[in-house]
Design brief:
This protein is of the alpha+beta class and 172 residues long. Helix 2 packs across helix 3. The chain is globular.
């Protein structure tokens, strides 16, 4: 599970809250971006590529994602973030169906004919857990530490005419 002292905690926590509280589009979009964030943190130049994203998925996603490949998730990520659809799913599945919470049945890593079926809450939780495990294994890496210094964070800044304290979202 996500450790509060992890710099990734605020993001992973927000993703899971969005999934549980009826914001499935936001939750899924940010979830499929997580491997990119991890790759960027581990990269000397601070950037990700499709190939590195797919390798991260292969190395870090377990049996909870056995019916989709890194290619499927990369296609889904590109489609969701750039085109408002799940991408060109011609790798291991032809379509993805997300069950929205609230129903009497939950789906976790299911494949039915050509469809990959997953409950939004479980999809997000399982992938955020994988990211948390990845971070715990690599948190002392010098490149990751350096790249976190240049990433976004929730901070308390002194602003305004009365110099009140506000929680703000911004760059370190």
């Amino acid at each position: 599970m996500v450790q509060p002292e992890s710099p990734l905690h605020p993001l992973l926590d927000e993703i899971n809250k969005a999934a549980v509280n009826g914001l499935p589009f936001l939750a899924v979009a940010m979830t499929v971006a997580l491997p990119d964030i991890c790759v960027s943190l581990a990269s000397v130049n601070g950037l990700s590529t499709g190939q590195l994203y797919k390798e991260w998925c292969k190395d870090n996603l377990g049996s909870e994602f056995s019916f989709v490949t890194g290619d499927d998730l990369w296609s889904m990520r590109c489609g969701v973030l750039h085109n408002g659809r799940f991408g060109d799913l011609r790798h291991n599945v032809n379509r993805i169906v997300f069950a929205i919470s609230g129903g009497p049945v939950t789906f976790q890593n299911c494949k039915m004919n050509d469809a990959y079926i997953y409950s939004v809450v479980d999809f997000c939780k399982n992938l955020t857990d994988a990211v948390s495990c990845w971070y715990e294994k690599h948190k002392n890496d010098a490149t990751i530490k350096a790249n976190f210094a240049a990433s976004y964070a929730i901070q308390v800044w002194r602003t305004g005419p009365l110099y009140s304290w506000y929680d703000c979202f911004g760059m370190n």
